[in-house]
Write a structure and sequence with these properties.
3 helices; 4-stranded antiparallel beta sheet
């Protein structure tokens, strides 16, 4: 008995041929075995769990460690840049304050006037040079209003800090003593100053030009101005300013009817 497999599918034909037991269907049995193995393999593959698409714990720990290291480096770089920027701005501000202060003091001290107390017998000068303060008479620049004023350069407390100030009052020409500065107008020259020192270069009182001038911390000669004035300023949070040396006007005989040049004294009005 033979089976007509021309009108059925190849797989069904192979199954019928194999069931018929015909010796001519050995190829069909081989194909059926191959199909069975293939289907079993596909079924096993479908039932197998999918491969993992995530990270292992070790990989995650390594990634976190690298991320922390990169973040630390970036934070350090940004902090360094910010600190450098702040220090640069602070230095620029300090340099600007120093330049403006030096210019103001130099102009004011260079414009000193040998103003005298004509009501006093010795006619002393409007000048008081201490170790940490300096008082003198000078003309106000025309752009600032002009006129003669009595100035004082000193440190003024401002909370837990000190300011470098320039105070001014209108001198009383009928007075017989140096004015105080309780009601004086004051200008702030620099903030947060730790120390202010003055030095004076000149000769001892009653000495003549034959004696050599020296530096001293105070100026005690009421009849003549020092040859040079040195100002040392030390800010609280930065380096000390370069020493500023100013040469005041040398006209001590102004206002004197008779000037005794041997002793550098005013002896008449």
């Amino acid at each position: 008995m033979t089976t007509d497999v021309s009108n059925v599918s190849p797989r069904i034909a192979d199954y019928r041929c194999a069931l018929s037991g015909s010796t001519s269907c050995s190829g069909a049995r081989t194909r059926i075995l191959a199909w069975s193995v293939s289907e079993a393999s596909l079924r096993v593959a479908r039932c197998a769990p999918p491969p993992s698409l995530g990270f292992t714990l070790l990989e995650l720990l390594v990634a976190l460690a690298l991320l922390g290291l990169i973040s630390a480096l970036l934070y350090g770089s940004l902090s360094l840049s910010a600190n450098s920027w702040d220090r640069g701005e602070q230095k620029v501000e300090q340099a600007s304050d120093m330049r403006l202060t030096e210019e103001m003091l130099r102009q004011t001290l260079s414009a000193q006037h040998p103003l005298r107390f004509h009501k006093v017998v010795d006619q002393p000068l409007y000048f008081a040079g201490g170790t940490d303060s300096l008082s003198f008479a000078a003309a106000m620049p025309g752009r600032a209003g002009g006129g003669m004023f009595y100035f004082r350069v000193a440190l003024a407390p401002a909370g837990d800090r000190s300011r470098l100030t320039l105070a001014r009052v209108i001198p009383d020409y009928s007075a017989n003593a140096l004015p105080d500065f309780r009601d004086a107008d004051s200008s702030v020259l620099a903030e947060d100053i730790a120390e202010l020192r003055f030095g004076y270069f000149g000769r001892d009182p009653d000495s003549n030009d034959a004696s050599d001038p020296t530096w001293r911390e105070r100026w005690d000669d009421p009849q003549i101005l020092p040859l040079l004035i040195r100002i040392d300023v030390k800010p609280a949070k930065s380096q000390a300013w370069p020493a500023m040396i100013v040469e005041p006007r040398l006209a001590p005989e102004a206002g004197c009817r008779s000037w005794y040049a041997v002793r550098n004294r005013c002896i008449g009005s």
